Amino acid sequence: MNLKKYLYPLLVLFSISGYAQNDQSLSGSTAAQSDEGEAHIAIDPTDSTKMIMGFMELGAGLSFEIYHSQDAGDNWQLSTFDALAAMQPDMGSYTVIGGGDVVFAYAVNGDIYCSWISLWANFGSGNPLDSCLWRATWAKSTDGGISFSMQNDSTKNFAYGSVDLNGGLNVLDVADGIADRQWMAVDRTNGPFRDNLYVGYINYPFDLQQTGLKVKVKTPGSNSFSAETVAYQGSGQLTNIATDANGIVHYTFVDLALNTINHVSSSDGGQSFSNTHLIANGQNVFPQGNFKINDRENSAPSLAIDGANNLHLVWGEFPAGDTLPASYYSKSTDGGLNWSNPIELSSLFNDKVFMPVVSAYENRISISGNVLSNDKKSEYYLALSDDNGANFSWPVKLSSGITDFVSTGLQSFVGDYSSSVRT
After folding, report:
1. Which listed site, 6, 132, 219, 251, has its alpha carbon 20 to 30 Å from 400?
2. What number of helices (H) and strands (E) belong to the chain?
3. Predicted pLDDT at 177
4. How far apart are CA 53 and CA 251, in angstroms?
5. What is the DSSP letter of 15?
6. How many other C-beta atoms lie within 10 A of the C-beta of residue 270?
7. What is the largest distance, in Å, between two alpha-carbon atoms of the chain?
């Protein structure tokens, strides 16, 4: 279980024509350690002037900060929506003790879906940790992110459960159990599954033999999600989900036990999933010690689909014996059945890369990440392709300062939800 309380200073970075850039600090914190993190950004595919982003922040307790832009990122405004405060009336005497994973997806009509997870304890009981409440919740905005609303009943949660934290983590026999590290995607085709909202997540139920990657679907006009579909049984984690121009749902992930990077897909609206397609054999994709950058580091695959339906994936690995991580890029031109030999990103960036992300629009692909020196100082760079990933430009530096990962310490968290968008 991850209470998602390790945070990292946040700066919104985006590139526009001619590599011009505009840096805006949305966080009110200037502290170097454990303040904010897990930043996720999304852009309206039909109107690139509209964007939404969010992150979690620790100040006077945990909060989720959501910002929206209506002018292509030139200006950002704080949403009026306070997710945890909106949940509180239903939580009664319970107090939030953890949470994170704020992610977004745009509906066909421009509405915005938002989801997050939270963990609650009742400190008024004799043993507040013996029946904590786990919630995986969603909301929708119809005004570009200015405000959001939730359902008025239990369908506001796409999954929920209860856990006992006394002496460890025990999933109780309540509903779904734990639903963690969710991602969302919307079908934007004119096919039979148009405007379906898919949410994919790792599920730890009461019967741990049923642990696996699950997907639920909200169809247009419905205010609730379907029953779960198993996309992958076993120790899958660190997922991404996306839909292509044919309405195929693509799901990428890591198998922690096998150290593999994998892909499955669904052609029937998330009702069933394909056999597993191997992308790469990894090295130490989920370290449990001997950390190189921070003690939450993991492979964090990032998935994007371009206008020709090519799939692009970047991820990190943490080889034993090396002092720095290694990151890779692979591409599929046949819907995920086969993948190109992984290219280490140091060949593009001339140094090791930490927590890379990829985005795509039509024939344009962007890969960005923290580029590391041998002494673990980092600057943020972006490499661009105008030919569907066949070739990449010399990287462009986006950051205006240097991040020293040694001085920030192992507990400073660069989040799994680092992301980028492009036009």
Report:
1. 6
2. 3, 26
3. 97
4. 22
5. B
6. 27
7. 62
Q: What is the pTM of this model?
A: 0.92
pLDDT per 10-residue tile (average), the chain, 423 residues: 31 36 63 66 94 85 92 94 96 94 96 97 91 97 98 97 93 96 96 98 94 97 96 93 98 96 98 98 88 85 97 95 95 98 97 95 96 95 97 94 83 71 83
Length of the chain: 423
User: What b/e string do you get for 117-143 counting C-beta neighbours within 10 Å, with b at 16 or more?
Assistant: bbbbbbeeeeebebbbbbbbbbbbbee
Retrieve residue 3's tokens. Answer: 């209470």
The first and second tokens of residue 415, run together, are 């989040």
CA 84 to chain centre: 19
Q: Reduced to 3 states, what is the DSSP secondary structure of residue 18?
A: helix
Whole-angstrom distance, CA of residue 353 vs CA of residue 327: 6
Residue 342: is it exposed, middle or buried by C-beta count within 10 angstroms (0-12/13-18/19+)?
buried
User: Can you tell me whether residue 19 is helix, strand or coil?
Assistant: helix
Q: Beta strand 260-266 with 249-255: parallel, antiparallel or unpaired? A: antiparallel
